[in-house]
Automatic annotation (TrEMBL):
Residues 276-373 form the Histidine kinase/HSP90-like ATPase domain. Keywords: Coiled coil, Kinase, Membrane, Transferase, Transmembrane, Transmembrane helix, Two-component regulatory system. SUPFAM superfamilies: ATPase domain of HSP90 chaperone/DNA topoisomerase II/histidine kinase. The chain crosses the membrane at residues 12-30, 36-57, 64-84, 141-163. Residues 1-168 form the DUF5931 domain. Residues 163-196 form a coiled coil. This is DUF5931 domain-containing protein.
Amino acid sequence: MGIEGPFWRAIAVYRVASLVYAAVLLAQNRGYEHPAAGWTVIGVMTLWTAGTAWAYAVPALRRWPLLGLDLLITLGCLLASPYVEGARQSEPGTLPVPATWIAGPVLAWAVHGGRRAGAVAAAAVAGGDLWLRLRAPGVPLQVNGAVLLFLAGVVVGHVARLARQAEERMQRAVEMEAAQRERERLARDIHDSVLQVLALVQRRGQRLGGEAAELGRLAGEQEAALRQLVAGPAAGGHPSGLTDLRSPLLRLAGPGVTVSTPATPVLLTAEAAREVTAAVKAALDNVRAHCGEGARAWVLAEEGEEEGKSVVTVSVRDDGPGMPAGRLAEARAEGRLGVAESIRGRIARLGGHATVTAVPGQGTEIELTLPTRP
């Protein structure tokens, strides 16, 4: 992935710098007891440094065979130190011939495989380093190098894994944004053409009656389906785990029912979206039961603020005969709890409220308001 490129370049720079450091140490110590062998090790390190700088720059070559070979060559150079240094290996402060170059494969394993892979490579290299120190008589055992190798492997692996995850999330966000822009563009074009034609066919068919009414009904169903298609992803399909209220509401559209929703998702918990949809269904059932066959209903969902809190408001309005004052109280007294429980009760349990406005001869409007985080 693109985010890994800087990590591999940094490892290449580290290898070159540590190679120069190892060569300087060998020169300062005049090649130890076996200069030819020492410079041969430096030559192998030089060739492998150049090879890995090229190989790790090619994403297709960043595989476990190359990483395993990298670790083996590094261990070979490390374990050649006793022969090169001879008796001088026991002198205080003497480093192995590769010196800090041995951390190269640890960093490579960490970038490629994460924390665990970095720790495994660190264990292998640190084991070789500790074995050399145990073989040196009279030299106190020092574990500083092993500890630093483990820290480098774990920390670099963790950072590399976080960087990959951040890149993946960024890529998903870019794709979602592009998809949303395209969806909004299609929604505008469809709304300006197809949806308006379908709505016109539905209205004209209802007025003409007969076979034209059936054609209008079919046009209304296709309009509702098309509105749902361009509205966005299905309910529950959001990374946040929330549900887009628009999808279940748009499924309620049909002949005589028009549903309008915002262009952006209206996100609620799954339970809240389910209860709001059920309340709207109950309201539409009341329209069909009490307002007659020709009555129309309009459902409008929107987001806003109420008393400084973010809320979602869904209103259901019809063009029926309305209700006389006190009708809801009479229905409750008669044990008919459709509005009281199916609508008001559901919204109240979510921490919201429902208001009913009815004017005789002018229809009824039910407004459901609830917080976005019930």
